[in-house]
Amino acid sequence: MKHIFIIVLLFISLRLNAGDDDDFCGVKNTAFQSGENAIYHIYYTLAGVYVMGGEASFNVTIEQLGGRPVYHVIGQGKTNSFFDGFFKVRDRYESYIDTASLQPLKFIRKIEEGKFKKSETVKFNKDANTATSANGTYKVSNCVQDVMSTVYYARNINFNKYKVNDKIPFDLFVDDETYHLYIRYLGKEKVRTKFGKFNAIKFKPLLVKGSSFSGGEQMTVWITDDANHLPIRIESGISVGSIKVDMMNYRGLRHTMSAFIDF
Prior knowledge:
mainly beta
């Protein structure tokens, strides 16, 4: 279950391309609000058998940073007691996002995965288009996002603008590098999760090759087809077996969950 939480984050890391002419650079937030909370269960499968491997949560509050209002979003992931005996995971990701532009100002990551531990802080200078970590200062694109801010920025995408198989590019800064990726829009459908049945928007993100993923379009994502665009289901093959992530609980949504059909 290594990298269990970064898997959850990457499936919704969809920030759109950060060029100067990008229609979505500085988009106004209409999808989420302070007080929102969502819980996800993460299932791992091998030989066709699914076992719950862990849980992830996402929370939003409004705070002040440098004299300006920001959304403070926190994502936390952990393995359950059974998997703790094999590979214990305790991950925490935070982003401070400007409420006016939805651009990240500060990113914090603290992860414990087995014997591996990492702690880092990244500060973004939007005037200079730079990102600064403990390892140096890096030039980034105009509206680059961090791992956490992508989750909330992307929920304001107007998917009605796109046709099936359209590619939507995005830039992501992580581990002192900027990655130029995309998602492929696959249209709308009904999907039944462990929470219930939803009207959903479906897409596949291009993944970076790593220890858990082989790269390419190996992951499928579903989000609610309503004003919330709340992620509800992901499925992906990994190096051994596959994973399924389902939304199991939510509260404090900005809009009524009109995409929900039934249990």
